[in-house]
Amino acid sequence: MEYTTYKLFCKDEHVKEIYVGSTNNFARRKNGHKSHSKDETKSNRLYKRVNCNGVFSNWTMEVLEKCFCDSFFDAKIRERFWYDELKALLNTCRLRASREETNVLSVESSKVYNVEHKDELLKTTKSGIK
Questions:
Q1: What global pTM score does this model have?
Q2: What integer pLDDT is reported at residue 74 of this predicted model?
């Protein structure tokens, strides 16, 4: 299944903290974040930070990569790679996977997916989909 790993960050460059996530439906996940940020009963770190720095419209959800994963767990390993790489401070939960597992699985799945979807990825990158 195709998964998208993304980062959510504030348009205000003074706000450095980011959130990293993964999903098999980017549009639905984006709408979920937007909806949750409006829900005052949601009190996690991400939504508190969103609401302290404008509202959701002041934040950008950007694709980091699209890759084919055999399982939800494999997608979470890719997410964990980006979480570590970008030092995502707004994530509440993090997957427990070793750096070695992350590197091995992420490199293998990314290479296969990138070869199989080269033209599609070039179009996505050139159009600047966010």
A1: 0.70
A2: 87
What is the number of structural domains in the chain? Answer: 1
The stretches in the chain having pLDDT less than 50 are 102, 130
Alpha carbons 65 and 52: distance in angstroms, whole number: 28
Helix (H, G, I), strand (E, B) or coil at 33: helix
Give the residue from 24, 7, 4, 22 showing the smallest Cα distance to 62: 7
Q: Which two tokens stand for residue 73?
A: 């767990």
Q: How far apart are CA 113 and CA 118, in angstroms?
A: 8
Q: Domain span at residue 95?
A: 2-127
Backbone angles phi, psi at 97, to 5 degrees: -145, 145
User: For 45, which DSSP code?
Assistant: H
As beta bridge partners, residue 63 has 6
Q: What is the predicted pLDDT for the residue at 130?
A: 46
Give me the long-range contacts of 96-104 (CB less than 8 A, separation at least 24): 101/77, 102/77, 102/78
> So what's the pLDDT on residue 73?
86
Q: What is the rounded distance in angstroms from the CA atom of residue 53 to the CA atom of residue 56?
A: 9
Q: Which residues are bridge partners to 18 per DSSP?
A: 9
